[in-house]
Amino acid sequence: MDMGRTTAAQTTVETATGTTWRLRIRMDDSPGTLARITIRLADLGCNILGLQVMPVPGGVLDELVVRPAPGLGRAELVEAIAAEGCECAGVTDADVRELVEPATAALAAAGRAVDDPAKLADVLRDVLAADMVTLVPSNEANPARTEGGHRRVFPVGPEGALVARRSWAPFVQLEIARAQAMLGLLAAVRANLAGPSVVTCTDGAMVVLRPGRPADTDAVFALHTRCSTDTLFHRYHTGLRTVPRRWLHRLLMPPRGLSLLAIAGREVVALGQLIPSANGGPAEVSLLVADDWQRKGLGTALLGRLAELGAAAGHRELVAVCLPGQDAVRRAVLRAGLHAPEPDAKEGVLRIEIPAG
What we know:
The protein is of the alpha+beta class. The protein is built from ten helices and 15 strands. Residues 207-355 form the N-acetyltransferase domain. This is GNAT superfamily N-acetyltransferase.
């Protein structure tokens, strides 16, 4: 627990030494109430740096950022607020750098999460002024357990949820709505990223990249029939002559992952996959490009797009299984602007680093 935060019920006297505090004051929504509080704070030598009014059932919750007078204790401040007929719902340390209009701060936070999805939990913690935010599997989130308003669950996909906790004050609906709006915006960004895009091959042919879906099974089966046994061997590492139809749905809709198709006219000419690890390790990528579409930059385009989708899902590293002496995937990785050290000869694994931002 963050020892710099305290609730109004705590009576330990803490002196201010050039610090800044964030106060949550519950009061009646009636004329003059806020004026009485500000006058009392002025009498105590507090300098008010920021104010936000949040509607709550039965009144309002005013959040003030103040710089207290030297020697003023939190308990004394709480008692002064109570003497004006109001309730101090929480006091915590603040940072003057946080004094940004809330909507602007939320948009800036969303921008940071777009640039680096792996920091989503940290961004949500900042938006909510929470003690901690953790990512847990959906079946462990238990949204019914609210802990008196000090705990809130935010689903972020079919596989997980962010759990926010705050000891110094309960979450209020305005804050929850703001956080949900930010998460909704980020989900829309990810969905738009996963939408179709057009790439131009080195021979001038234009190809559409889009996510695979169950209706593509026949087209993906046809892709495999147009691939040579050598191409299939490099993809599946076995003497496969054609793909069993029972594999097609799993190729298009891999568990926890996604597929990416390259479409030329009505034909699927390449297939890529991104499959997150079940144990939290790097996600795995794989490619299959029809023989007559190889060496045209299509593998590079697929890998680049899969890396973008992986980064949007919070991955910073991908892996690809390569046979000894097979360097086509690594060449495509480097052409895509990614970094990949030489593959481990024993493991046969190529590690692909996704640059931040």
